[in-house]
Please model this.
Amino acid sequence: DAGVIQSPRHEVTEMGQEVTLRCKPISGHNSLFWYRQTMMRGLELLIYFNNNVPIDDSGMPEDRFSAKMPNASFSTLKIQPSEPRDSAVYFCASSFDGSDGLYGYTFGSGTRLTVV
Amino acid sequence: TQLLEQSPQFLSIQEGENLTVYCNSSSVFSSLQWYRQEPGEGPVLLVTVVTGGEVKKLKRLTFQFGDARKDSSLHITAAQPGDTGLYLCAGALQGAQKLVFGQGTRLTINP
Model:
């Protein structure tokens, strides 16, 4: 398996522009998570899906952020309009949530977003 | 306020030394995981501990889950430069479908 695949690896955009981050989870995993990492705040959970359904989006900063998971093999995180304070590394992770408890997460390599 | 507090936040030691990193909480976790993250990459799972008092070893790394399942430690023996990275603990609260991450310990092993 190629692991969790994120694209793009790097994104530089101007303030006010729309940004779309993409994630392909590991086949067979039924949970998908979007995280944001900064030096100041560490890893923050933005939203997670179970069986393609959003379960908890309480970490989404504001209405400018939205996430979708149209099928089991693809998810997007969109920021519209983007602001400089959105600059961070965004990670997607997937796992299998079984009846016997949480399995470990597999993280993608992340998207480094810079908003200027 | 972090649900999981890691200490120290930064640690820089010489190759060959031993070290311990701590992960503490006032909450009880059904399981706890440790990850290592290298620059430019996502965190990678090292181990999962489930039972209170459980000890797991991974070569020179020893992981322990506290008896009350509220804390954990990671001990590295004879540290090597390849151990350099950000170490993150993450806990699963009872019945939760998601992990809570600590803020991490940034470890540097100097040759």
Chain B touches chain A through 23 residues (CB under 8 Å). Residues 81 and 105 of chain B are 15 Å apart (CA to CA).
